[in-house]
Amino acid sequence: MEYAVDSGNRPTIMVTNDDGIDAPGLQGLVRVLVSANRYQVLVCAPDSEKSAVSHSITWRHAISVKRVDINGATAFAVSGTPADCTSLGITKSIFSSVPDLVISGINMGSNCGYHIVYSGTVAAAREAFFYGVPSLSLSYDWVEGKSSISDFTLGAEACLPIINAILAEIKNKTYPQRCFLNIDLPTNVANHKGYKLTNQGVSIFKMGWRQVTSDAQGDKMLSTMSMETNSSTFSDIGASTVCQEHLLFRRVRGPQKQEDGDKDHGSLKDGYITVTPLGALSHAEVDCQKFFKEWLPGVTDQSSSAYNADYLL
After folding, report:
1. Contacts of 99 (CB under 8 A, 6+ apart)
2. What does the pLDDT read at residue 258?
3. At what angle are helices 24-36 and 150-171 packed, to 10 degrees?
4. How far apart are CA 203 and CA 256, in angstroms?
5. Cα separation of 62 and 59, whole Å?
6. I want to staple 17 with a disulfide (CB 3.0 to 4.6 A). Which of 26, 41, 57, 185 is the partner?
């Protein structure tokens, strides 16, 4: 199955996400891109929510691909993960050409700091990066009671200058090949303070577990590790009321580890649209490299000495 892409002179953008093809963030982004009347818009996204699946891929069984109607776009719903969707969309498996740019989002919930590791949204952009296709991930810092669905449209519109600038660099063959972008939109996106280049920080919600009596109990996950907490959904569980051979636990959000310096999460909370270049390699901090450079030879010496001692015995 391969659908021809007739882009004319327009750049082609492929949209994916991890919240599912019907999610308001993706739908809002696609509407803005289509309304701009400047791009050929493709969509290849999960057929259901796949939040927090990170960079998992489907390996042991086939996945289904179904054509769906999204006004102004050529769209497919896929039974696989976000990374699967990107891979299908950029390898000429369902589209006749490779898109110029892949955009993953807009996610309902921010993706900053260590949460990036868990994010299916970021993983979808990273998968395109693996294949040499320029990409970016978009996430909105949704806050229950403050945010509304219309904020996704505002967020997409706020990112159009970045998208257009990236496409111009791609056309000129001057866009960097060794990174992709992770962009987070502040809660009050209508009054954002502008774009701010940031580094990935170390912010993370310390997650715990709570025993529940049914799978329906627990916090509602908005995004990668962001949750709406509703303590009324929990009930105290006595040991005598639960079968000890079949226990149910759900994640609960604990305190957040804060970060120092000018990092992504802090800047986002200050009201900026954060733009964070990311790569695929996970380098350790310099002091860790120094420690293990001195430590590893000693391990080898100790191992050799222990072997000789055992041999003599």
Report:
1. 12, 13, 14, 42, 89, 90, 133
2. 63
3. 50
4. 7
5. 8
6. 26
